Structures are given as C-alpha cells and as structure tokens.
C-alpha cells in the first residue's frame, strides 16, 4: 500500500497499480486558531480570503511519482487582501515515511534547506531521512536502510519561474520558503529518496522494491496561505436618532478602505453589539456616545456617534368641564 497524506484538501482517490492499492487521501486542514505569525500577517489559513481554484495533475495524481504532482492555482480575489503568500504551513509541514505510520520520527519531518534551494529561480527544498525495509533478493533476507529524503517545490507561471521569498524575511519564521501570490501560478511537488546512488520518486522506488505487504509510503504536505489586510481608513459612525425610549436605533459604520474588517460597538449604556450595522433599543432618555472599533490584522480604528433618545411628552389631562346653565324666559310665539 502507498498512501499520500496531505492535510489541506478534501479528496479521496483510490487507484490500483499492479497488486498494490494506492490511496490518495487529502483531508481538510483547519487551524485551531488564526495564529498571527507576525504583527502584519494572518495565517496559516485555508482557503485564502475570497477563495481560489486548484487543478491537480500528474501521474496517478500522486506527489511521489516521476515528474511530481502539479498544483495549478488561480481564481484569487485580490480585492480581499493587501498581499498573499502560499507555502508549507510551518516547520512540521513536510514529511516522508516508509513504515505506513503517521510521521512521528524527527528525521521523517523534513527541514527547509536554504543551501539546496534556489529561491530566485523558484526552487525550494526540504531534506530529511527515513528508514525503508525491503526484501534483499541477493541476500535472501529483509533489509532496512536509512535513506536521505527530500521535498522539492518548484514554482512557475506563464512567464517562467516565480521567485520565492524566505519566510523569515516576512516575520514568518517557521515556514521556510513562500510564494508571493500575484496571479495564477503552478507548484510542482516532488518527494524523493536517495537509493542506489541516485534520487528516485518515493512511490516509484517503493513499488520497485520487495517491500513489506501492507506497509505504506506516507508523504505529508501541510500547505497554507498567509495574508496582509488593507489598512483601515476613513471609518465613520452614524445613527438614525433621535428616537423615543424603547424605539429601535440603527447604528452604521462605513470605511473608505480596509479588508476583512470586524466591528464591535460600545453603545454607551452598558450594552455592546457587533457588525457594521447594529440595532439597539435604549431604555432611558438622554444623549449617548456610541463608539465603534473596526479591526483587521493591519490594525484598528475607532469612531464615535452621538445617539439622542427622547422621553415622550405626557398626555394632557382630559377632565369634563361643567358650565352653569342659565334659563331665561322668552314670550311664546
């Protein structure tokens, strides 16, 4: 069995190759929190704000076959962020194992290797090692070897190689190399192991040896996006008062610029609300200063608006009025 495990997609594909079943499992990766890796970036997240389109191609749609696996990215909504980067989510985001178990051994987790990378030409590499057990035909015995392993990321678009950025220069210290997303691009993903004096795709190598029945190759790539928001500008708060007590007041926040903005309101009477538009009923007459705070990962801004709540005027007293009645005599007609 050969398994490729990726932690950010939602596909399940099983293929038959010779006597072995090849299962490609891609599961949705959901971060437990939007951890801020720097003061300016949000991430890792998946998908990016506004979504994207992904098309996969390659032999058996497997990352460990000859030629690697191509992911073609497109369909980005560039109005939803200031800048966007893609790559491995963190320092544990890439791994290779030959024992069919989850990647737990330290060497099975590949480390970014700047010395083997050529970022200017769109090439980044992660290196590690893993133990491979197979049937040694010559010695008629099971043999286990520690093999060097590597993951190579090659990025290009219609114009040629896309230069990569060292994550540390962006304050994203655990990511290795990242792609600055400015348009459609393709990422070629290749997982290889060094055996018999040459580098071979891990799945092809595994299939070519007398490996143990039921044991799997595990390849792990947890990729993600990191983005910067457009800074908030021109925040204005308004409301539709004056109103009478218990009537609904609508408060509205507007901005001239800013992406992925959240709004919180201090309504001035001990209550709060969220959203660009908030509704509230004040129970006591008076003037209230409502404060809205607009926030995204580029910063925050505040604005105020005065809410006027009036008390209804009392109804006039309605008592019957009795006038004296005077009778006068008049001659009969």
List keywords for this structure.
333 residues; mainly beta; 5-stranded mixed beta sheet; 1 helix; disordered N terminus
* Amino- and carboxy-terminal Cα gap: 127 Å
- Most strands sheet: 9 strands, antiparallel
Strand content: over 45%
Mean pLDDT: 82
Order of helices and strands: EEEEEEEEEEEEEEEEHEEEEEEEEEEE
Topology (SSEs and partners):
Elements: E1 2-6, E2 11-17, E3 20-26, E4 42-45, E5 53-57, E6 69-74, E7 83-88, E8 94-97, E9 111-112, E10 123-136, E11 141-157, E12 160-161, E13 164-166, E14 177-180, E15 185-195, E16 198-201, H1 202-208, E17 210-211, E18 218-221, E19 223-228, E20 236-239, E21 243-244, E22 248-254, E23 262-266, E24 272-274, E25 277-281, E26 286-296, E27 299-310
Parallel strand pairs: 1-3, 1-18, 21-27
Antiparallel strand pairs: 2-3, 4-19, 5-6, 6-15, 7-14, 7-19, 8-18, 9-10, 10-11, 10-17, 11-12, 11-15, 13-14, 15-16, 20-22, 22-25, 23-24, 23-26, 26-27
Q: Brief description of this entry?
A:
The protein is mostly beta strands. It is 2% helix and 49% strand.
Description:
The chain contains 1 helix and 27 strands. The chain is an all-beta fold and 333 residues long. Strands 5, 6, 9, 10, 11, 12, 15, 16 and 17 form a 9-stranded antiparallel sheet that branches. The protein has one helix spanning 202-208, and strands at 2-6, 11-17, 20-26, 42-45, 53-57, 69-74, 83-88, 94-97, 111-112, 123-136, 141-157, 160-161, 164-166, 177-180, 185-195, 198-201, 210-211, 218-221, 223-228, 236-239, 243-244, 248-254, 262-266, 272-274, 277-281, 286-296, 299-310. Helices cover 2% and strands 49% of the residues. The chain is elongated and about 145 Å long. The protein has 2 domains: 2-228, no CATH class; 236-310, Immunoglobulin-like (Sandwich).
């Amino acid at each position: 069995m050969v398994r490729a495990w990726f932690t950010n997609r939602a596909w399940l594909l099983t293929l038959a190759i010779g006597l072995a079943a090849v299962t490609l499992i891609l599961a949705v990766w959901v971060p437990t929190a939007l951890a801020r890796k720097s003061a300016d970036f949000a991430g890792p997240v998946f998908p990016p704000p506004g979504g994207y389109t992904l098309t996969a191609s390659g032999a058996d749609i497997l990352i460990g076959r000859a030629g690697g696996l191509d992911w073609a990215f497109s369909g980005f909504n560039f109005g939803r962020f200031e800048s966007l980067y893609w790559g491995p989510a963190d320092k544990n985001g890439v791994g290779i194992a030959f024992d069919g178990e989850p990647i737990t051994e330290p060497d099975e987790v590949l480390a970014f290797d700047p010395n083997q990378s050529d970022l200017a030409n769109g090439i980044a590499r992660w290196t590690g090692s893993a133990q491979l057990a197979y049937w040694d035909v010559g010695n008629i015995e099971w043999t286990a070897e520690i093999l060097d392993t590597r993951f190579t990321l090659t990025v290009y678009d219609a114009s040629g190689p896309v230069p990569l950025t060292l994550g540390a220069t962006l304050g994203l210290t655990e990511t290795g190399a990242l792609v600055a997303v400015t348009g459609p691009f393709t990422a070629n993903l290749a997982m290889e192991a060094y055996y018999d004096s040459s580098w071979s795709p891990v799945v092809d190598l595994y299939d070519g040896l007398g490996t143990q029945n039921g044991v799997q190759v595990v390849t792990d790539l947890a990729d993600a996006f990191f983005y910067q928001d457009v800074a908030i500008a021109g925040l204005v708060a308004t409301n539709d008062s004056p109103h009478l007590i218990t009537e609904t007041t609508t408060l509205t926040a507007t901005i001239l610029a800013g992406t992925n903005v959240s709004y919180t309101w201090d309504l001035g009477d001990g209550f709060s609300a969220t959203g660009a538009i908030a509704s509230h009923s004040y129970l006591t007459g008076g003037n209230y200063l409502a404060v809205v705070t607009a926030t995204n990962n580029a910063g925050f801004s505040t604005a105020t608006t005065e809410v006027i709540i009036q008390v209804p005027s009392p109804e006039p007293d309605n008592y019957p009025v009795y006038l004296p009645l005077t009778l006068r005599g008049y001659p009969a007609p």
